[in-house]
Amino acid sequence: MAANDKDFWAGLDISKLPSSGVAARDIGCVFFYTGIECLHGHVAPRYAKGGRCVACAHASAERDRLANWTGKKGAARAHLIRSLASIDGHRVYVPEKPCVNGHYLRWTGSNNCVECDKENRVKYAESRREARLKKKYGITNSEYSELAKEQGGKCKICTQYPVNDQPLHVDHCHKSGAVRGLLCSRCNQAIGLLCEDVSLFMAAAEYIKQARQTKVVAG
Hints:
Distance between the termini: 97 Å
Protein name: Recombination endonuclease VII
Low-confidence stretches: none
Helix content: 40-55%
InterPro entries: Endonuclease_7, Endonuclease_7_sf, His-Me_finger_sf
């Protein structure tokens, strides 16, 4: 018995499905397809677990008038579309219905929405950053952004933009904990290596000044 428009696999190339339940279970696929009629004459996919003909199972469900049959049928078709995409080696696939946010692209592995995943990763990174800033420096993302805006996105010491668009580091007093400004990685490390000792900075500056004025004799 060939598939008709009422069958959830109608229009899909089910010949790509694994040919046995064992092979289907090995790749995490719910269905397999043999191309052989079942006892009731259906040439349909079979469940990897138990090997029951899908058409028979659904016919039985319709006869029993299950209240959620329509939803189950839609879910089965969605899973089959995803399985076929996975078998074809696609990392993503396009389902027939969008996610709750209206996006159509999903990962074949997790079945998560690709766009929602990206948005959630950004939100998670922002929340982690917010927690870190609050815990370590007592400021929020908004306050950090305001500081960066006041400095024009530049380091407060060298007045240069950070290399490779790296975020500016929060500089704070290690005694009081007060935030002093935002520095590039180089300046932040420099004041740390000189122990924030003004006399050392002045000595270093004088040393460099004298070195530039002194003629170096080679050999």
